[in-house]
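Regression test attached.
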Amino acid sequence: MLKPTKGWISLNLGDLWQYRELVYFLTWRDILVRYKQTLLGAAWAIIQPLMQMVIFNFLFGNMAEISTGEVPRTIFTFSALLPWNLFSKSLSDASRSLVSNRGMITKVYFPRLVIPLASILSGLVDFLIAFVILAGMMVYYQVSVTSTIWILPLVILFTLVLALGVGLWFSAWNLHYRDVGYFIPFLTQFWMLASPIAYPLSEIPQQWQTLYMINPMVGVVESFRWALVGGDPVPTLALILTGGISIVVLVSGLFYFRRMERTFADTV
Amino acid sequence: MNSNIVVKVENLGKQYKIGAVVDRSPTLRDAIVRAVRRPVEVLRGQALPRKEIIWALRNVSFEVERGKVLGIIGRNGAGKSTLLKVLSRITEPSEGYARITGRVGSLLEVGTGFNPELTGRENIFLNGAILGMRRSEIDRKFDEIVEFSGVEKFIETPVKRYSSGMYLRLAFSVAAHLEPEILVVDEVLAVGDAEFQRRCIGKMSEVAGEGRTVLFVSHNMSAVIRLTEESIVLQNGQMVYRAPTQEAVEFYMSSGYSQSSERRWSLDEIPDSAKPFRPIALRVKDPRGNIGDVVRSIEPLTVEMEYELEEDIQGLRVGIYLLTMRGDLVFVSFDTDSGPEYEKFGTRPAGRYVSRCQIPADFFNEGQYVIGINASSYRVKRFFQEEHALSFSIDSMGAPGKQWPEVRMGSVRPRLNWQIEEQF
């Protein structure tokens, strides 16, 4: 039954389940294509965060002399860059995904959610590659894993949920207003500085910390680091805030996306 | 409701806001400006600025029974593609509804989602999934798809290294193995060479023969006639006719709906080297003087070249190159080919001219043809040349040999005077 729909429509996740194989194939395509015709191939997934880490260590360690506590600076920065890069890459890929797949949108039906979802998932592969390097570094620096590591999958899940949520809003906007494409690099840059990647949360004055944690990436980065190298304080509040905000952003993003979906093929 | 009806379309309409859609994507600034202005305007009692709305489709109603093959014909912009997009769920209707029973597969293009970096094998899986096939289904049909495409040797090569023909064959091959209950097909046969088109049509009639429901859009009237029993004619978004295909095609062809085809040259398109020759227009006309891009093979057609000479030219000849869509030359002919004309126009004085020739009936085979033009003085100077000035299609309805539904090879299809004598 095809007829005009009005207002907010149901999420129709069953339809998405029907097309789960397409999610798989699009993710697979994104991964296959990403490093085609590069000399170094998937090594880029390692080189990029390593370079970032070197720059950060220089800026914040050698120049600003910000303390990282007992944790070696290398581990400190790298363990924050991993979830951050997962987030920012997934977010910007997802935001551009509808526009870059417009050929498909105008020619074939499938739940459009498949497209941003696949971009998010394909970001996970780079993350896993870089994670192996992090594990190697931890062995080298003899940082022992603490019992808190169980929380890691949850943190990664929150990162993906948040990236998808924000990505859904942006991808739908980007279809109407290409301005979004120009805005995203600034946003991610600003957002990165506003997250405790190169500096610890304790650098933020006590009275501002709760406000600071409204940025859901604070919880992600802090918890990720905490899960690997332990130490206190336990970022419970930050993690709860992250979880709550991520879910709100995702659900609202899903509804907004579904609402805009019907005009995608006409506006693209 | 009759349970045999698998597609029921009722009062279907689709509107587009032009300006918002056609021009460019509106920027955020526009949206902000609008958001600020609107309340002010409403307060002042000003009418909201009306966007121009066009109905790409309106009041279209029809039904299709299970296993029927329906043709949809109409000229460009008549709403055919919009109709198919609505039926295949790509876009929502603005009014009315369509009820579809069964799984729909849409083929609005071959090779949707093909990625040039991926190999043939990888693209088969990707494209299959995009078209809605299950992985197990693609696995099962994989060998068949590869064989049908004829690119076995290159299946591990990235498709960006394929020739355009190989690319198309592979893409069509995936599409051809889609097995939906209802198949929606747009103009996919318009691409590719004659051999490719022959295979496409063969595969399409196979699909139709299997009792699946097909909605089929094409500009190729012969294909529509061969594949469909019944057709609807769309004009300006409305359904104006529904009849057995033969009648519908006659209606469409005779009502001058076919697209006008005329090549006009504006001054800035003409290179300085063409001087003093100035082309004005080139057109193809049917015997009733209509300038149409579809001409029937059983009628003569007239090719007309209009031009101006700013100075006298000695030994000028103006002529046409006629090629098939594949680029094979069919013939070349000049306006001073005949002795008397050649004598008379040894020097052609400045002025405005029309060079006109008639190509006799029963000359062309069905298909698309391209006319190129050339104006030169033999061994002195080539003033002007354009290889693809104009294209037109020939419809072979009523041509010799049409009692057999096979595709007749060759670019000409003469009506020869055959005699069969019994020898004693």
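Expected vs. actual: identical. The radius of gyration of chain B is 26 Å.
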